[in-house]
Amino acid sequence: MRATDGRVLRAVRRRHAVVGLLVTIALGIASRRFPIGLFVWDKSLGDALYTVMLYFITLLARPTLRPSAAGAAALSLSVAIELFQLTEVPARLPRALQIALGTTFAWHDIACYVVGALVAVAAHRIGERG
How far is Cα 35 from Cα 13, in angstroms, rounded to an integer? Predict the structure, then answer.
């Protein structure tokens, strides 16, 4: 692969990551602002999308990472943030940070993060094949 090919590949992956990030944020906001009475939409989807968002942010920073490495990084960060909630520090932070970091630890959230990472990795691999 020539150097210019590598730059083009990184640029394309970054563009895809930006689009994915924007779509993920929009879906996450929609799942919280427009509840429909289904737990999967009202709660679980937003938690899974948190990890998907971190997946796309990881790819923006490191577009050449393999999907499994980006998924592992996003999942690790999600779990670390969830564990940080056990310190009760996030509950004392400004409201904007409370929204971003959460304030209450839940095992359910970690399960959703795993699902989000797996879906992001699988979608990335399928997208690269197509």
Answer: 32
Phi and psi, residue 29, nearest 5°: -65, -45
Whole-number Å distance between alpha carbons of 12 and 60: 10
Instruction: Look at the pTM and tell me if it is higher than 0.85.
Output: yes
pLDDT digits (tens, 9 = 90+) for 81-108: 999 999 999 999 999 999 999 999 999 9
Report phi then psi at 2, rounded to 5: -80, 160
Determine the Cα–Cα distance for residues 130 and 29; give it in Å rounded to an integer: 29
| CA angle, 118 then 21 then 126, to 5° | 40
d(CA 116, CA 100): 17
DSSP for 15-79 reads HHHHHHHHHHHHHHHHHHHS--S-HIIIIIHHHHHHHHHHHHHHHHH-TTS-HHHHHHHHHHHHH
Q: What is the residue extent of each domain of the chain?
A: 3-129
Asked if residue 74 lies in contact with residue 47, where contact means CB atoms within 8 angstroms, the answer is no
